[in-house]
Amino acid sequence: xxxxxxxCCGLDVHQKTVVGCRLLTQPKGTIEKSICTFATTTNGxxxxxxxxxxxxxxxVALESTGIYWRPxxxxxxxxxxxxxxxxxxxxxxxxxxxxxxDSEWIADLLRHGLLKASFIPPKPIRELRDLVRTQTQxxxxxxxxxxxxxxxxxxxxxxxxxxxxxxxxxxxxQMLETLIAGESDPTLLAKLARGRMRPKIAxxxxxxxxxxxxxxxxxxxxxxxxxxxxxxxVGQLEQEVAERLSPFEKSLALLMTIPGxxxxxxxxxxxxxxxxxxxxxxxxxxxxxxxxxxxxHLSAGKRRNGKPTKGNRYxxxxxxxxxxVLTRMRNNYLSAQYRHLKPRLGKKKAVVAVAHSVLVIIYHxxxxxxxxxxxxxxxxxxxxxxxxxxxxxxxxxxxxYRVELAPQEEVTS
Length: 413
Description:
The protein is built from 15 helices and 7 strands. The protein is α/β, with parallel strands linked by helices. It has 3 domains: 7-111, 2-Layer Sandwich (Nucleotidyltransferase, domain 5); 124-246, Helix Hairpins; 250-368, no CATH class.
């Protein structure tokens, strides 16, 4: 096979060690192979870098193994052309697996140009992504604690959730704290209602009649304390994310021209994708990377429905949420697309199709640096009208008529 990279190295990465196979093509065409094992400590990675530089290595390939690849990538980034490769894309021969053989296999595939590098966004985007993902996880944890409060109250037969919209609103929060303090009189508790809750005092008195045991009060106290802690952490993360987003305000504004995309959604999209779409040759490549397109399964001339790739679950999740938001809208092309596809595909598949369309729009908006131009909520109705005209024209021509279409002139009074 043709040699593509003459001075390259394959790395087999583990938690404690990394095995490197260095292939150096000599002037006479021979290959100098050397294999070495390094620790994944900072000193060990420094030694790995020195070993690569000593051989004038230009390309390095490694598997995307859990999070173990990250320290190595961070240490070698900017010094070598790095190929971070999905482990499923380079299986070795079964029954011949050792760390040394794995590194040799990776190096040999890289040398002949048979490896496809995964998309790795620039360092500022990776740092933003870590912060946004952590923020998302904390928000999800906060929501789980809110659900625990509902569960504790229901267990004690206190139906506060059926009367108040926000269990952590001012009125409900004061009622919870009073319950924790030991008060159980529903009349006194209901009188703590404020503002728009005042007209519901009678309902609150009924809802607050329950049997709150001491262990329920303890659980409520602990859950509220943890909620306050989580809320503080989320607020600090929001400030840090806002500061790091300042260089990308233009891209955020472009994304928010797309219907259904809020600032929060735009932040998640930007933290996962970045702003440079040059890494993806087309919108179809991006959809494949995200996991919003069918898999390819062609065998014996027959094409079967392939399962979508796993892709980026964070992006896929936020795009699906955006699509669900669009199902409740009426004044744009994407909501019209959902209503157009729903009778034929069903609700869930239509939502996935709309999520794919949103991703394609995101690709072009970021690639061109131009705001989204909506096709209009009547797009499919206009298309249907044109298709009907063409169909009727073909039928008349088949009957021997010559047809010339012209729009009907408006009758002027």
